[in-house]
């Protein structure tokens, strides 16, 4: 159960990835996971819609063989929270977790990313 858990608060996001588009966010997350050499087992991305029918934020989760990735977006605040946890059973996957988070931070382009690193286990 050893592993690295990255927890990010990304504010003032100015990247090209739309924060209200579940399909775009899913594609970004799955691409980041694949590029890092991690293995997705399933995903669910839920878009929120306002009373006026306009898209709002998205909550998304990707289940990994190695654990999970979760993102939550607030387009009206230009904010994103992200959570990447990878287990290190048999191999140290910490660099892969960092690569996923680096890709997300680059895509969202926050003015000042705040990332916590928690060693688990």
UniProtKB/TrEMBL annotation:
Pfam families: AdoMet_dc (PF02675). GO terms for cellular component: cytosol. Its EC number is 4.1.1.50. InterPro entries: AdoMetDC_C, AdoMetDC_fam_prok, AdoMetDC_N, S-AdoMet_deCO2ase_core, S-AdoMet_deCOase_pro-enz. Its cofactor is pyruvate. Signal peptide: none annotated. Keywords: Autocatalytic cleavage, Decarboxylase, Lyase, Polyamine biosynthesis, Pyruvate, S-adenosyl-L-methionine, Schiff base, Spermidine biosynthesis, Zymogen. It is an enzyme of class 4 (lyase). One of its GO terms (molecular function) is adenosylmethionine decarboxylase activity. This is Adenosylmethionine decarboxylase. It comes from Scleromatobacter humisilvae.
